[in-house]
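Hi C.,

You asked whether I'd gotten around to modeling the 167-residue construct. I have! Everything is below, sequence then structure, no commentary in between.
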Amino acid sequence: MAKRARMYWLMKSEPDEYSIDDLQRDTDECCPRGRCSWDGVRNYQARNFMREMAVGDLVLFYHSSTKPPGVAGVAEVCRAAYPDHTQFDPKSKYYDPKSKEAEPRWSMVDLQYVEHLAFISLATLKDTPALAEMKVVQKGSRLSVQPVRKAEFKAVVKLGKGKTRVR
């Protein structure tokens, strides 16, 4: 069986909830095995995209619901999709009483920090011709997990390189 080609993604997080700095800290210090669970996704299309992720896929870490929103860094998928435990916890804000352990509705993946990039605002992404078809720049694009083409990923990283923060 042929090995699947690496895929690329964009995942949004509100920086006051969980930022690229938090992912770096958690990858370095807090998370067992140096990875952090990306839980709480409650959109079926975003969940389905997470279920397509594989170990080694790369992620553009996007800060949303902030002024300005934009790409802050890069992460890597270090564990493929598995059941999101928060769906079964009545004390969690992500609890889903309709989800059953035998047939979980929601999944999560584990990420690990790769690097910070110089912040690339949504306006800059929109003004970059190579990114004209990128989902995040499309009007009405609110999905928290979305695929990114390899060329788009490389273009975004190139925009943020040269100014990359030292870890």
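If it helps when you're writing up: The radius of gyration is 16 Å.

Thanks,
B.
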